[in-house]
Amino acid sequence: MSDRIEKTIDLNAPIERVWRAVSDHKEFGAWFKVDLEAPFAVGQEARGQITHPGYEHVTWKAKVTAIEPPRRLAFTWHPYGVDPDIDYDQEEPTLVEFLLAPNGAGTRLTVVESGFDKVPARRREEAFRMNDGGWTQQVQNIKAHVES
Predict the structure, then answer these.
(1) For the chain, how big is the Rg over CA atoms in Å?
(2) Domain membership of residue 127 as a residue range
(3) N or C: which end of the chain has fewer CB within 10 A?
(4) Across-strand partners of 50?
(5) β-sheet bridge partners, residue 112
(6) Residue 85 contacts by C-beta under 8 Å, 6 or more apart in sequence?
(7) Contacting residues for 53 by C-beta, under 8 A, at least 6 apart
(8) How far apart are alpha carbons 62 and 81 in whole angstroms?
(9) pLDDT tens digits for 12-64?
(10) Which tens digits make up the pLDDT trace of 106-119?
(11) Total of domains in the chain
(12) CB atoms inside a 10 Å sphere around CB 1
């Protein structure tokens, strides 16, 4: 198993459009399926209720570590932290980065989640597997969002 997940997708939308979909909390929430409470701010926790069917009981939490328009947004979080009876704050988080680059008239988006080697061994494999599948779906979600 790798320490990182990386997904790259070419989007038929200008970088400014993709940046807005990644960095604006309302737009991010629309395609990521989370109702975020407030705009992203470096050093602050972003949180909200997940709206994806079957996960509505989960509060999504991440700490924003970088906002570098229009190229990079990064946050840390606890991967596949969906059990309400577990205090994930005691674990080392992974780093998620949204990296944008011009690609002709469109944008190449790369999503990288790294640091799985720090996830507790008892849940590392499942967290990796679930997030690998999750990012595969999320890059399709953002594609549909920005190309519609």
Answers:
(1) 15
(2) 4-147
(3) C
(4) 34
(5) 6, 97
(6) none
(7) none
(8) 11
(9) 999 999 999 999 999 999 999 999 999 999 999 999 999 999 999 999 999 99
(10) 999 999 999 999 99
(11) 1
(12) 9
